[in-house]
């Protein structure tokens, strides 16, 4: 078994649809330039209000990925 080393970064995704889509948008974008994404942890959730209604969601998350051996 090989010992792995992981790196953690922080991302913020947004979506008009909801929290899950905001997370998925952040992970999808990150996966275009990073590989070996393994886990995420939501650290903050925010919403933007316009005309007295929720207009979109912002979710900040930590994403961990395994460094190449």
Structure description:
- It is built from 1 helix and 3 strands, in the order E-H-E-E.
- It is α+β, with helices and mostly antiparallel strands and 69 residues long.
- A 3-stranded antiparallel beta sheet has the order 1-3-2.
- The chain is elongated, with a radius of gyration of 14 Å.
- The mean pLDDT is 95.
Descriptive tags:
69 residues, alpha+beta, three-stranded antiparallel β-sheet
What topology, given as strand order, has the largest sheet?
Answer: 1-3-2
Low-confidence stretches: none
Order of helices and strands: EHEE
Question: Helices and strands: which structural class?
Answer: alpha+beta
N- and C-termini, Cα separation: 12 Å
Write the topology of this structure.
Blueprint: E1 6-15, H1 19-30, E2 37-50, E3 53-66
Short description, anyone?
The protein has 69 residues and is an alpha+beta fold.
